[in-house]
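Human: If only I could read backbone structure tokens as easily as an amino acid sequence. Take your time, and here it is.
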Amino acid sequence: MAVRIRLLRMGKIRNPQYRIVVADSRVKRDGKAIEFIGIYHPKEEPSLIEVKSDRVQHWLSVGAQPSEAVVAILSKTGDWQKYKGLPAPTEPLKVAPARADRRAVYEAAAQAAAGLSKPEPTKASAKKAAPAKAEAPAEKPAEKPAAEAPAAEETAVAAGDEQQG
């Protein structure tokens, strides 16, 4: 029996999602598989590739023949080079950033809209605020109140001028 490592197509029209499977070469493309050893979703950005490396190495060592598409996928993960004894790929596999928990984001927005709590700072505003906080303790405490007092008086005087005029 000739065993192949190939892709089993799943998903919708124009949204393919594949499973990497070990199957008899005589079975249909989407037929019965011996073992599922990974997934490949090409439409995501970046493409999602998850492979059980130990199982791939086992099946390659016992003589399973990968299809051309599977060889390309295994080359990106480094499993094909590991099997052939070649150096690992120079470019690391791209990984999508972790998604925020949708429920937590919704609850925080709902509380902020209800006025129960302050909205949590976003990542961008947190990065901007962090350096400012780091610089504030470095200044001398005696200079800080003196520098702020005249500025507060000037704004009060300017506000008074606007009301009179």
